[in-house]
Amino acid sequence: MSRLAVIAIGGNSLVENATCQSVAGEQKALQETAIHIVEMILRGWQVVLTHGNGPQVGLILLQAEIARKELDYTISVDIAVAESQGSIGYALQQALSNELRRRSLNKQVVALLTHTLVDPDDPAFQQPSKPIGPFYTATEAEQKQREYGWAMMEDAGRGWRRAVPSPHPCQIMESEAIAHMLQAGLIVISAGGGGIPVIIDTYGTLIGTQAVIDKDLASSLLASTLQADLLLISTGVEKVALNYHGPNQQDLSKLTLSEILRYFNEGHFARGSMEPKICAAIEYLQNGGKAVLITRPEAITQALDGKTGTWIFPDSR
Ligand SMILES: Nc1ncnc2c1ncn2[C@@H]1O[C@H](COP(=O)(O)OP(=O)(O)O)[C@@H](O)[C@H]1O
Ligand SMILES: NC(=O)OP(=O)(O)O
Fold first, then answer.
1. Ligand 2, closest atom to CA 131?
2. Aspartate/glutamate/uridylate kinase domain: which residues (predicted)?
3. Is 12 in the active site?
4. Is 197 in the pocket of ligand 2 (CB under 6 A)?
5. Which domains, from first to last, does the chain contain?
6. Alpha-carbon Rg of the chain, whole angstroms?
7. pLDDT digits (tens, 9 = 90+) for 110-157
8. Is there an atom of ligand 2 within 6 Å of 309 CB?
């Protein structure tokens, strides 16, 4: 029986250059990622792909602000997340389908608009903490705050970005549909951008909310719900490090849940970048997950052979 991996693809690794986004750049990055995912499928893995949308959802909202100068036009954050699921899902679906065809694999890929349930009383709604969109200088950030009323935050030493609320994911609403699609042998792209954030009102109605859910936390929840064998977080670094970018940086290769919890509590992982990935890994393992791999897309194949990447396992195996 094939093993199931939930693969979370980083939003920043979907763009060639964070300061200059282009469709061609996104396609190139996706084609590269697709090569390594199809290699995994050839090795017998069943896969569910999730993806980030931080740069893209911010850009969609920025386009809306610019359009508002000419038209009476506005867009809510949940709609922008849905748009990003559509556009990134399309590009990822096409890149994977092309690579499957190139490798003569007769498999179909589906991209599913996915809702993620959040708690309307989550305190995160009062405290914007999710960086989205392009990076700005401190002066530009002040201008954006004045011009558009955006909350702004410094993002892990990389510059200033717009910040939006990011409530914790409680339930992937379409998880049963995803399980059925996997049973049918499909490759599924879902929970893109953490999923479209929704609450359920007292009448049982789904209502979109103004937030961007962390895709690593949503991927962890999806991996736990589907009882996946592996949560693979594909990002910009080959390995997670202690004292990252410090003089005594120490790359991590293989560690246990207890060890990562200790390093997490010691504050080794930057807020808004590596920290949510480590939280996602911890939650998945605490919910009975079997293994987490964090690495760059180009290193996936080697990492699955145990030669690189950061592997995190439950305490007793
Ligand atoms: N302790 C750490 N170890 C490795 N990378 C780190 C660490 N802390 C911060 N980072 C940075 O976090 C980045 C991953 O976060 P980010 O780019 O936001 O993720 P995503 O790939 O999901 O878009 C890495 O590429 C690296 O630059
Ligand atoms: N939604 C989300 O977490 O996107 P990024 O991974 O691009 O920040």
1. 8
2. 4-295
3. yes
4. no
5. 3-108+177-191+211-313 (3.40.1160.10)
6. 19
7. 999 999 999 999 999 999 999 999 999 999 999 999 999 999 999 878
8. no
